[in-house]
Amino acid sequence: MGLMLIDWCALALVVFIGLPHGALDAAISFSMISSSKRIARLAGLLLIYLLLAIAIFLIWYQLPAFSLLIFLLISIVHFGMADFNACPTKLKWPHIIAHGGTVAVWLPLIQKNEVTKLFSILTSGPTPILWDILLVFFLCWSIGVCLHTYETLRSKHYNIAFELIGLIFLAWYAPPLVTFAIYFCFIHSRRHFSFVWKQLQHMSSKKMMIGSAIILSFTSWLIGGGIYFFLNSKMMASEAALQTVFIGLAALTVPHMILIDLIFRPHASRIKIKN
User: Fold this and answer.
1) Euclidean distance between CA atoms 28 and 264, whole angstroms
2) Quick count: other Cβ atoms within 10 Å of Cβ 255?
3) What is the rounded distance in angstroms from the CA atom of residue 115 to the CA atom of residue 136?
4) Quick one: which of 71, 103, 173, 258 could link to 250 by a disulfide (CB 3.0–4.6 Å)?
5) What is the pLDDT of residues 121-164, one digit of tens each?
6) Which of 151-160, 243-252, 254-263 is predicted least confidently?
């Protein structure tokens, strides 16, 4: 599968604008360590983070279709949680499912011909069972959209409703990689940066935040570049790029999601309540 210029631009946005939003994870981890041995403990946490990412990467090549399905599922939760926390509404899970599922469920189904080609590259073959499961996800997403839209319009949260409707139409008309890049870079990553920056101002120094973000971003780019050139020796450049970006994102999303959604958000909420 060859990529158009606009697809390469979308991948570049994901790598250089979207990916660094996870580079603050070191500063986040450091801010939650109260021990005097903070550097040693941080090194241990980063090692666990890296090993978990490597494990996910290796599992993907052993069970690609299953791994892609799990990646889509956790993307619904992770993206939806970020959108909900940025603009909370009364119906939490319909909000999460509606927003998170727009990219992970609606986009693949409405652009099935193009996304089938992308999925085939990521799984090294056809995935008919995955599409059957996505239809079940679509039913859940549709219910979530209806409940969420009703609630946002009833409570006059028009900006939230219009954002969701705009994303739905964007996914319908724009190329899949472009839709993903716009959402990932300019909605999800922007909200993540805003949330983390606000929280860490009370827990960590700006020097630590900026320094860790720069170091981890360049480290990720170097590792990703190495993986890309290795894969490019075995397959087309476009296929190597897609596997590097999306399997790499999946590998990083699992430890990132554990840290942000299961550890840091509750930790930040407890601190907010105390203050």
Assistant:
1) 7
2) 21
3) 17
4) 71
5) 999 888 889 999 999 999 999 999 999 999 999 999 999 999 99
6) 254-263
CB 139 within 8 A of CB 86: no
Exposure class string for 142-172: b at 16+ Cβ within 10 A, else e:
eebbebbbebbeeeebeebbebbeebbebbe
Look at residues 212, 198, 193 and name the one whose alpha carbon lies nearest to residue 269: 198
**What is the tens place of the pLDDT at every residue in 45-89?**
889 999 999 999 999 999 999 999 999 999 999 999 999 999 999
Cα–Cα distance, 22 to 220 (Å, whole number)? 10
Could you give the C-alpha distances from 150 to 54, 80, 94, in angstroms and in order? 42, 17, 10
CB of 102 closer than 8 Å to CB of 109: no
pLDDT averaged over every residue in the chain: 90
Please check whether residue 115 is in contact with residue 176, taking contact to mean a CB–CB distance below 8 angstroms: yes
